[in-house]
Design brief:
Distance between the termini: 51 Å
Structural class: alpha+beta
Helix content: over 70%
Strand order of the largest sheet: 2-4-5-7-6
Number of strands: 7
Shape: rod-shaped
Amino acid sequence: MIKINLENDKIILAKYGEKAWERLNEINLKRATFLTYTVAFVNLILLMIDYIHKEQGLWTITPGYVLLFYTHVVQGIGVLLFILSYLIFKAKINSSKDLSLLYVYSFILFLINICAFTSGWADQFIHGEISVYIMSCTVFAVFFYLKPKYFILFYVQSFINFLIYITMTQDNLQILQAHYVNSTLSVILSMIIAITVSKMMERDTIYKYNLEEIVNERTTKLKESLETVQRLERLNLVGKMAATVGHEVRNPLTAIKGFLQLMKGKQSEPEHIEYFDIMISEIDRANSIITKFLSISRNKATIMNRGNLKEVVSSILPLIEADAIYRNMKLIADLNEVPDILLNEQEINQLVLNLARNGIEAMEAGGCLTIKIDQRNDKVILTVSDEGPGIEQDILDKLGTPFFSTKETGTGLGLVVCNSIAERHNAELKIKSSSEGSFFEVHFKIPSPKDFEEATSAEWN
């Protein structure tokens, strides 16, 4: 069974809430039209009873019966006008949201105020009861589904009128006090019932008409969460491997490289020297892989300082530009002014260099690498884009997986390192690709002044 607590899920409520209220307003309109006919029929019966009271001489004995008759006449005329207006403008009312709301709200307001007048004024001269107003509050609470602000408006407005009427007409102080208490409790309970029922109907309507979409959204989010967990598990595995063997393997490799360099210096034959160069090159490559391992497995907390991404990227642009020129490519730098963020300059350098080299290696001669920095809402965005052939979707899904690489000499650790750096900076790495090229975006959150203060104090400590 799928259960969603809409009170705690503002996203779903905001997305589907308006649709739900459109359907609830349709129900309200049908119920309002039904109630107009019902009230019109009941009003005819009440007018017949008024006539019987007149024939019995009650109008002469108790003037309140005359006032009650005029109340029923006004109520009947009002309801008749609502019926006629609906029949005349039926098509427009049903097709227009504003007109249908106006029809429903004006009908509720009219009827609840008539009931307030009947109980607070006319009935006080006859039998001193307020049952008509209490009954109307209860009926509207369970009969219509409105947003809380409208229920509060209707109840409070009619209750104020009711209190004015009853205070002016009821002379018995004890009865008046009892009416105050009973009417107050009735209005409060009716509002609670009305708001509770409306919220339940809103939730049920969202479930009824949008359950499939909600389930699909939740399934997608669950898959994304599982993928994130799996990626973190892979990173954790690689990190443990790196922490366990990284330093131990690096030390003997350094010793072997030193002896090879020593032996190379004693060789005189070019062929043997070439062999030594190959071995030293491979040891350097192995050492580079271990360095990347150690970067991923960083257990030590990254020291973050206040810095500007534009300044950090500007400092390494000459290196990237030299690499691009060497490969007969162009570099475009669009570095806009952005707010300061918390960063580790050395790691950001590594992140930018990795993304830039990936872009350069993805293009042929004549291609253009673009590095852009700008601000979007509360985030600073670093974008590195290329003009390569793009990345196929099945490969795109595997990017960032340790040891997965499309390059012949790749280790599959470059993007793993980038993801690791982004996570340590509380940033998000997003990848987009098409036939026109690939875009790597890193979204850095702009810290609050409090975040900067906490980072500075942590650094001093």
